Amino acid sequence: MIYYLSVQLxxxxxxxxxxxxxxxxxxxxxxxxxxxxxLGARRLKGLLVExxxxxxxxxxxxxxxxxxxxxxxxxxxxxxTREGAARLHIGAASLPxxxxxxxxxxxxxxxxxxxxxxxxxxxxxxxxxxxxxTGAPEHGSLRSIRVLLRDTPLIxxxxxxxxxxxxxxxxxxxxxxxxxxxxxxRNRGRGRISLLLHETAPSDVxxxxxxxxxQTHFHTFADALREAP
Length: 229
Fold this sequence. Notes:
The protein has 229 residues and is α+β, with helices and mostly antiparallel strands. The chain has one domain. The protein contains 6 helices and 8 strands, in the order ββααββααβββαβα. The protein has helices at residues 41-64, 68-75, 97-109, 114-121, 166-178, 212-227, and strands at 2-9, 38-39, 88-90, 93-94, 122-127, 143-148, 154-160, 193-198. The strands form 3 sheets. It has a 4-stranded antiparallel β-sheet. Strands 2-4 form a two-stranded antiparallel sheet. 28% of the residues are buried.
């Protein structure tokens, strides 16, 4: 069974892949063969797992106890065998399928180059460390980082091995809404994001009705907490 997760960029974001371009760029973002930017599956799952851990800490052992097995079903256990693996498989978040397919076709036909696609959806930000004693930039500290432009829509598939229960969707919605920032530079104003759940691939992630499914499942989570002894 497939659900979808939309990623709305509220500010420019840098989902670095850990390398750069010598002499030009210190940090490159994740992108595919046609230059379409992506938010990798492992990184996206990490954001959700991190917020799940934050919920566990905030609620405390007693209130979290009923949700612990639900979290294990959703995200699995570290080092788990296949039998103990997560029921939820999170795919990479990429451009909407129609846009991505069109760009791939243009690159294959030679009408666009990969670097042109990437440049159209990103920009380069430069930053440097300052010497607190002099107020001048520190020597050799200038860094060039590629960032994905705000409002670029990304969508990831969420594949469940079996149909998810109400409690699984409720906890997932709580984790989804808890994510507020992602990528590098989150403490420098970058990477402000908003995630939402969808039953079908959304055609417009900015539609005013688009958040209803996520809110409905989150209210299930919130009501369960209020009713707990």
